[in-house]
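User: I'm writing a short report section on ligand binding and want a predicted complex to refer to. Could you take this sequence and coenzyme A and write out the structure as tokens? A short remark afterwards would be nice.
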Amino acid sequence: MSAWRIVPLPTHGPLFAGAIDVYSAAFALPPYSDPDRGDEVRERIVEIHQYREGFRAFCAVSDTGEVVGMTYGYRGAPGQWWHDAVAAALEPAAAERWLSDAYELVELAVHPVWQNRGIGTALIAALLEGVRQATCVLSTRSDSRAHRLYRRLGFQVLTEMRFAPGGAPFYVMGRPLPFDAVAAPQPGEEGRPAPV
Ligand SMILES: CC(C)(COP(=O)(O)OP(=O)(O)OC[C@H]1O[C@@H](n2cnc3c(N)ncnc32)[C@H](O)[C@@H]1OP(=O)(O)O)[C@@H](O)C(=O)NCCC(=O)NCCS
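Assistant: Sure. The structure tokens for the complex follow:
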């Protein structure tokens, strides 16, 4: 098994280009089947998301220097499209509990060849380590397998909703913080992340 490690992801340069390539490869497959989505995500990060409060991004890099996974997030706030759409879909008390002091896990992708080795889990653990918000929230398509990973890491389904009429259904999921890394891989094991 090849080794890999988790490192901070800059928003420019070769690591960033590699991360967008990984994102494109992961989302080119079903149920997404959207090979152009990487271009949209690159633009959103560069032009908008990197400037949001609490923006953090990490990537997984193989021992040959290839980017094999990526994630990023930021603190959610009223006025942001995703925050407002989810707030409108939740009961007011649930919206207050889960969104009033929330860190949003915005994107997560692992190259298809590198999936099922614990990289997605390690990326989430790196992203959420030390995050000071009360909750972490995200949305994931109900027909993808990603929700299994999130459930295993302590996320619960807050609601199921569509972000566009006729669009795919999504689970909105959340978990309290701090992230205690219940099932996060331990550094030093074969194929596991080295300490960063
Ligand atoms: C979702 C995604 C990021 C998960 O990445 P990953 O690196 O495969 O995640 P992990 O390896 O940590 O966990 C995946 C499974 O592998 C298992 N696993 C982890 N380490 C393992 C190992 N060493 N050997 C065998 N299986 C392992 C986990 O138990 C987990 O099972 P589960 O999904 O039933 O909980 C990846 O599948 C992906 O990029 N999918 C397409 C894009 C996507 O859906 N992104 C999320 C959008 S919200």
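A remark for your report: Strands lie at 4-8, 56-62, 67-75, 102-110, 135-141, 156-162, 169-176. The longest strand covers residues 67-75.
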